[in-house]
Amino acid sequence: MQSERQKERERERERERERERERERxxxxxxxxxxxxxxxxxxxxxxxxxxxxxIERERD
Length: 60
What we know:
Helix content is 97%, strand content 0%. The protein is mainly alpha-helical. The protein is rod-shaped. It starts with a helix and ends with a helix.
């Protein structure tokens, strides 16, 4: 009887560890997406700056 309860508690702890690992994986994916969004925004800002610079050159 005691052994059965111990096994159940151990299974529950293992499920909790797995949930925590999944949450950590999700946080990592979120960080990667955010990093990618920031990179894209920077790239777009750089392109815009280049376009403006080209326009200025054409005016000269």
